[in-house]
Amino acid sequence: MVNLAEMFARAMQRNQTVPLLPSVSEIDLRKRDIDDEAAEALAERIICDEDGVFVALVLSDNRIGPVGAEALAGAVANSNKIISLDLGGNDVGDEGAKSFAEAIPTSSTIDRLVLCNNGITDRGVMALAESLCSNETVTQLDLSWNDVSVEGSKALADSLCCNKKLTNLCLTHNNIDDEGAEALANAIGENSVVHLDLSGNSIGQDGFKSFANALESNPHRIQLCFRDIRLAIKATGHSRCDTDVGLISRLAGVFFNPLGEQCRRNLL
């Protein structure tokens, strides 16, 4: 069965009366069983079209792998049409991430890139991190539900120190521990990020201390999110050690850091 993206691209090639891509502010093709071949056809059509601009291209929850990702990255790099690209829930992997890493520095329009749940490890994240140093457009990057750990966290932290465009970074449900959290905390105040989501990672007391110290010494205007993270309970089995409660109070009390009651309950 020919999927929707391929049908759309073919129809536009043979019938000039079909509404042109420039008139579309959002193309939503999520959950359409789109594979690499269809993604390549769509990317080719985007590159060949000469007029208007896409606002958003949603291709989440399909079957796009590294080959399709490479084609779409080419469309990002070689057209001025894709402002937002959502590839969440595909299988682009590290090779696909590397393709987008090559595209980011050359794109003049891409503002939002969603690569959540794509089997990306530190290798792919390190490539993306390097590209962010040359980024002039991306303000939102979603790498949640991947396999980012220490090396990926450190690479992102290093890149944030030289990046002045990224404002929203989502790293939820990865494998970031205290060491990775410390690296990211140390980058606070050295970049333009105003929202950092680390929910669902393996951050313990040392990691939270790093953020508390960083925020106290540099009251950068940033929103931190730590849902689904619980600090360790003392080995004695007592309810909660005073240092943990004090640490949460420090984080919640830092100027400009909007850790509200709900976030405190999540931590406790």
TrEMBL record:
Descriptive protein name: Uncharacterized protein
Keyword Heme part of the UniProt annotation: no
Listed GO CC annotations: cytosol; nucleus; perinuclear region of cytoplasm
Organism per entry: Trieres chinensis (Marine centric diatom)
Keyword line: GTPase activation, Leucine-rich repeat, Repeat
A GO BP entry: nucleocytoplasmic transport
SUPFAM superfamilies cross-referenced by the UniProt entry: RNI-like
Record keyword Repeat present: yes
Any GO molecular function: GTPase activator activity
Domain of life: Eukaryota
